[in-house]
């Protein structure tokens, strides 16, 4: 792996949470597996891979897998026989192979119940829990009827947010409950050069204080302990990140604001912030050619890079839907003003 980033052209980030290495490359160790790219921009589905089998693979396989997930945005694996403990082990190897800071581990969600039988690092994604007052869909249900308002990247309210996330769905309705992902690289590439330069100098505030109300609704105390990084603790649930960030695994820039958590672009007026955020949100929600939609089957699994994608569940069902999610923590978000690249330009597209 290349040496750690030392350039002085870094905008944002934290010294305690810098990536250990530079860009990844693909050695071809995954070429023996059949796969299908689901769109030109985002999404890859592998055939006949089991997470449990990959746990015995060497470090290079994990580096190649990290690069594949980061470059394609999201990877799908069908019919996985894997336990929550194995999911946690897998995610620790993946984030380490990708060069995560020594200070970063697996995330503990602020709403995770203490003493959960699956462990602190497993978030249970449950439609039944949402009915009782949890999840973005509950927060939005009284103020919007637009499903697109639920687009988000995971835990961007933390000073050190997620690099990778893994979700296995084990309980499904007969139909419905799809999930969509969108590419942050593609949205960055659709910005004109003057707007790119404007946004490169700006930060945004991400806020999840609605979790305080959810904790009360669910009857659980908020987890104020260290949540996978020494920088992630307390009840503030607010962080400031660059509007444009560089993914260290690929060196590509992406837009890093989302409808779920981003409240304000800093350093401009509220009116200007509203206009800029609405434009960026619209680029995500109104460009179906920057998205991939996945129809789950029982025990299917997805792994995605939260630094460069958004996702949105489809709440079009009434029967139970549930799964287990693990989020690893990466670096504190930063923009490399000199080395950060456009995906399309780097690939010659």
UniProtKB/TrEMBL annotation:
One of its GO terms (molecular function) is metal ion binding. Its cofactor is Fe(2+). The keyword Metal-binding applies. InterPro entries: AtsK-like (IPR051323), TauD-like_sf (IPR042098), TauD/TfdA-like (IPR003819). Keywords: Dioxygenase, Iron, Metal-binding, Oxidoreductase. Residues 35-321 form the TauD/TfdA-like domain. It holds the Pfam family TauD. The keyword Metal-binding applies. This is TauD/TfdA-like domain-containing protein. It comes from Podospora fimiseda.
């Amino acid at each position: 792996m290349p040496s750690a980033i030392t350039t002085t052209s870094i905008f944002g980030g934290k010294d305690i949470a810098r990536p250990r290495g530079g860009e990844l490359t693909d050695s071809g160790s995954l070429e023996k597996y059949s796969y299908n790219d689901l769109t030109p921009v985002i999404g890859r589905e592998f055939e006949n891979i089991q997470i449990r089998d990959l746990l015995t693979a060497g470090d290079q396989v994990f580096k190649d897998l990290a690069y594949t997930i980061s470059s394609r945005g999201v990877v799908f694996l069908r019919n996985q026989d894997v336990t929550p403990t194995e999911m946690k082990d897998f995610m620790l190897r993946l984030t380490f192979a990708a060069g995560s800071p020594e200070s970063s581990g697996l995330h503990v969600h602020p709403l995770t119940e203490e003493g959960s039988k699956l462990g602190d690092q497993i978030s249970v994604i449950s439609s039944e829990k949402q009915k009782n007052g949890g999840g973005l869909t509950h927060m939005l249900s009284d103020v919007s009827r637009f499903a697109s308002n639920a687009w988000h990247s995971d835990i961007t309210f933390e000073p050190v947010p997620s690099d990778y996330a893994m979700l296995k769905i084990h309980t499904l309705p007969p139909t419905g409950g799809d999930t969509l992902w969108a590419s942050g690289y593609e949205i960055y590439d659709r910005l004109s050069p003057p707007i790119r330069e404007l946004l490169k100098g700006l930060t945004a505030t991400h806020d999840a204080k609605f979790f305080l109300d959810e904790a009360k609704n669910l009857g659980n105390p908020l987890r104020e302990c260290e949540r996978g990084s020494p920088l992630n603790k307390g009840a503030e649930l607010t962080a400031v990140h660059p509007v444009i960030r560089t993914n260290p695994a690929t060196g590509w820039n992406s837009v890093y604001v989302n409808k779920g958590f981003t409240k304000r672009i800093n350093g401009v007026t509220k009116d200007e912030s509203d206009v800029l955020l609405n434009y960026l949100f619209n680029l995500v929600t109104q460009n179906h050619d920057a998205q991939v939609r996945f129809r789950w089957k029982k025990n299917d699994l997805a792994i995605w890079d939260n630094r460069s994608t958004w996702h949105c569940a489809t709440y079009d069902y009434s029967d139970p839907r549930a799964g287990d999610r693990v989020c690893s923590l990466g670096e504190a978000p930063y923009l490399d003003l000199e080395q950060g690249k456009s995906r399309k330009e780097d690939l010659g597209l």
